[in-house]
């Protein structure tokens, strides 16, 4: 897998962890690809190639706000995307991903990691 593709998937995972993207379309289905498109401005930061930007954080905050409207099923689905996105990431990417919510001033609803039990996400 190419590094940029991996970075995009990791960025997806970070923000999917914080949101139920389905709430954007009133519980309509969502895909990890949709999240990749949303969080693309975070990619350089997660690749450790650029500083964190206001644009990235505005996307993080936007998606975090949507999480309040999501269902448990939405959050569990998002969690599965997170696990898939970070499963093959480097420890460096994972560390940056885990710190991203806090750096943007929000709290992720559950830990970002490779071993999160998605069925326990409420």
TrEMBL record:
Keyword Secreted: no
Signal peptide: 1-27
Entry's Gene Ontology BP terms: lipid transport
Domain Bifunctional inhibitor/plant lipid transfer protein/seed storage helical: 32-118
UniProt cross-references to InterPro entries, sorted A to Z: Bifun_inhib/LTP/seed_sf, Bifunc_inhib/LTP/seed_store, Plant_nsLTP
Regions crossing the membrane: none
Coiled-coil intervals, chain numbering: none
GO molecular function, one term: lipid binding
Matches recorded under CDD domains: nsLTP1
Superkingdom of the source species: Eukaryota
Keywords associated with the record: Disulfide bond, Lipid-binding, Signal, Transport
Entry function: Plant non-specific lipid-transfer proteins transfer phospholipids as well as galactolipids across membranes. May play a role in wax or cutin deposition in the cell walls of expanding epidermal cells and certain secretory tissues.
Similarity comment: Belongs to the plant LTP family.
Identification of the protein by name: Non-specific lipid-transfer protein
